[in-house]
Amino acid sequence: MRADGTSSLRDWLRSDLSASEVPWLAASVTTLFQSGPPGSRITVAVVGDGFGPQDQDAYNTAVDTLLTNGLFAQDFFEANKAAFNIVRVNLVSLESGVGTKTYGTDGNLIRQDDRDTALGAYYNGDWAHLWIEDGPSTAGRLASALSELVPEHQLKLVVLNNPGRGGRGGNWRATVPLGIGWPTLAHEFGHAMGRLGDEYHDRDETYGDTEPTVPNLTTNTDRATLKWGRSVRAETLVPTGGDDYTPPKPSGWDDSQDVGLFEGGGGSYRFGVYRPVVNCRMRKNNPEFCPVCAKAMTEVVAPYLANAPLIGVGSGDTTAALSEGDGTGYVRLVVRLEQGVLRVLEARELDGPFVETGLVTQGFAHEVRIGDRRVALGSLPDAGVSRGFSEIGTDGPREHVVHRPDAFDFVVRVASAELRGADLSELTVDLVSVGAGRGDALGEVPLREDPALDVTPIASLADLSVADLPMSLRRIVEPE
Ligand SMILES: [Zn+2]
Description:
Layout: H1 9-18, E1 26-34, E2 42-49, H2 56-68, H3 75-79, E3 84-92, E4 99-103, E5 109-113, E6 122-123, E7 132-133, H4 138-149, E8 155-160, E9 168-170, E10 173-176, H5 182-194, E11 201-206, E12 262-265, E13 267-275, H6 281-284, H7 291-301, H8 318-321, E14 330-338, E15 341-350, E16 363-370, E17 373-380, E18 386-388, E19 391-393, E20 396-398, E21 402-403, E22 407-415, H9 416-419, E23 427-434, E24 455-461, H10 471-477
Zinc ion binds next to α7.
C-alpha cells in the first residue's frame, strides 16, 4: 500500500507472484554496486543456476571474479562503471551442477544428464551448439525470478555451475559457465551493447557485400571519406596493413590504440573488408577496445552516466524523484514478437527517474506513440539473435554460431504519466528493422516513416482495446 492508501500495481503483482510455487530452495538479492537510481542506469542482474546450498560461496566468488573484480575493474567498463548497477541474485538450486548434453560428431544428441536446478539450463560444451542451451522452462523461470526480484534489470547474466568454457549471448542476455574469463564477456558485450563487428577472420574469404553497417568495419579505402578517418593520423598510410602493420612499423606504434586501415575482419574475410587497428578486443578478446570501438560503446553508455539529464525529473533533483508515487515513475512493458505478431506480456510500474536513450542504431528498434506523440523509442541490440561465443584459443579465432529464435521478448519503458488515462485506440507500438544510418537526431515523423533511416517494418500493435491487454497494464491505463 502506498502512503496515500492506494494500492500500487507493484504491490498487486508482487503478491500475485509470491503465491506461485518456485523451483528453487531460496532466493536472495545483493546489490554489488549501485551507481544511481535503478531506472537511470544499466542494471545488470546476475543469476546462478546449479548452485546448491553448499555452492553459494563459490557462486559469489565466481561473480566477483568475473564482474566486480574482472570486467568492471578493467579499462572501458571500469571507466564507465557509473553507467551501471550490478545486482547479484542467489537462487539456491536443489542439486549442484547444471544438466549436461553431449552431441556426437554428426550433431545428434547422444547423452543427456538432467539436474534439478533453479533454471534447468544445460551445458553442452559444443561450439556448433552454442555451448549452452536452455531447458524447456529456463526462460520462463528466469523471467519470473527477475520480474519479482530485480524488476528494473536491463542486462541478464546467467552463470552456470559447470567448469566448461564458451558461452552464449544475445538480446540483453549472456549465459556463461565458470571456465571463461572477463575478456570473453567484454568481447561479447561489444557485440551486444555496441553493435560491434568481429575484427578477426578465421578463413581466407573475400568480402563481396555492401558497406558494413557496424562502426568498426568498412570496405572504404579512401582516407577522406573513411568513417573513422578522423582517428587516422596524417602520416599513417591508408591502407595500413593486413594481419599486422606493413613494415616498417613506426616506433611507438600501439597495435590496439593507433588507428589505421587493416585488411581482414568480419569473422571470415581476409580480404575486401577493413578494421581500424592491428588488434582490438573485437579481434582477440584480451586487448582493450580500439578507439573506434570504444567510441561506439561510449555512445551507448553516455546517456546513463551520472550527469546526463534524467527523464521524469523536472527539477533535476534525483533525491526528490525517488520517493514513491510522485508521478516520475515509468512503466516497464515486456513485449513479445511471435510469428509476426506483437503482444504485451507484462507491465510493471517502477520508480523513476529513468533514462530512455532515444538512440537508434542498426538492427531492431521500437517506438511507442500515442497519437502524434512519441512516448518511447529505443534500439534493441542483438534482439532476435542468440550467438555462441567465439572461440579464441591457441588455434586462433573461430567464428560465432548464430541462432535466430522464432520468438523473442523485448522491453519498452514509458513514463507512467504518458500512459495513465491514455486513449488506447491512439496507442501504437512499432517494431522495425533499421538497416543503415544512425538516428541520433530523429525527426518527429514515426520511425517507420523516417526517410533518414533504412527502415523495414517488422510488426505493429495498434487499435488496442482494454481486453487486448494483460491485467497489469489495464490497471495502469485505467486506474480505479
Ligand atoms: Zn575495434
